[in-house]
């Protein structure tokens, strides 16, 4: 079998594109050079595989599952859309269920289907819970954290934690000792507490603005505390840049303020890549109308319950509005990979061959993952 591929395309750089030829050998990028006369015709825009570190599912399937088949469906719908590397996110649930889900996801990570696990909950602030079951939230518990770390078998990459809760520092210590990134999120922490936490054990902020009180000039809270930490290099901040969770101007303002600290994420749930309808997010029922997922509370105005975009959709949305594509791609590939310790999101010799070819409108036409072209 021929394991060599030669692909020519336009790779984004600040303010424009470079016309390059990429050679892939045995699943690895072996060469990247400037295109010359006689090379194959350009395939379109050429991007590194995208990296999503906050993703609950898609294609009608959830990562919060003990079914390996369901996990494969959820991963596949993002892989084929160009997200070649992703963390599977859990939601708040009973400890026994979390341990089972984490063990199943660890197997999926060991098999290379996902790149690891992100646990969102159960140690979250009740008033900032969003789409997390209030009956299942728990005070930070170092013993349970150790059990979850053990169940993950080295595959737990991130855990979201409300820093102001009693016991949060003890849980953070357990996580950092295990090499897990501690993320501040679903929190009402003061700005001072947020900054101190991010300067210490924390290194990431889970979906900035969402799941936290709004900033006020006399009560800055976790939003401005997080931005302050990002501004001095203590943290990266996740943004769900889908036009639902955040206004587009909010996204662009943050990218202008802390351009080197933004990580784009989908927070996708089972409805990503699917039609409107009724879905599950862990133990909660969710209704999706006009592409917006909300907790089904009978009013139609329940809390936003995850996203329905895929990461390339967010890149396309903001590139069309004039945001530099190279900046967007760094926030959707290399930076998220780096913050959670993954070697991904690079288009250079020695990197795993994860490539996305798109048309001029940034619609994917072909996706390569690990040197193999994926079927749409």
TrEMBL record:
Active-site residues, Swiss-Prot/TrEMBL: 267 (proton donor/acceptor)
UniProt-recorded Gene Ontology molecular function terms: metal ion binding; N-acetylglucosamine-6-phosphate deacetylase activity
KW Ion transport (keyword) present: no
Record-annotated Amidohydrolase-related domain positions: 45-371
Keywords, sorted A to Z: Carbohydrate metabolism, Hydrolase, Metal-binding
Residues at which Zn(2+) binds: 120, 186, 207
Requisite cofactors: a divalent metal cation
Family matches, as SUPFAM superfamilies: Composite domain of metallo-dependent hydrolases, Metallo-dependent hydrolases
InterPro entries found in the cross-reference section: Amidohydro-rel, GlcNAc_6-P_deAcase, Metal-dep_hydrolase_composite, Metal_Hydrolase
GO terms of biological process kind: N-acetylglucosamine catabolic process
Co-factor: note: Binds 1 divalent metal cation per subunit.
Annotated substrate binding sites: 131, 210-211, 218, 245, 304-306
Pfam family, one: Amidohydro_1
Family: Belongs to the metallo-dependent hydrolases superfamily. NagA family.
Protein name: Amidohydrolase family protein
Organism of origin: Nocardioides turkmenicus
Source species taxonomy: Bacteria, Bacillati, Actinomycetota, Actinomycetes, Propionibacteriales
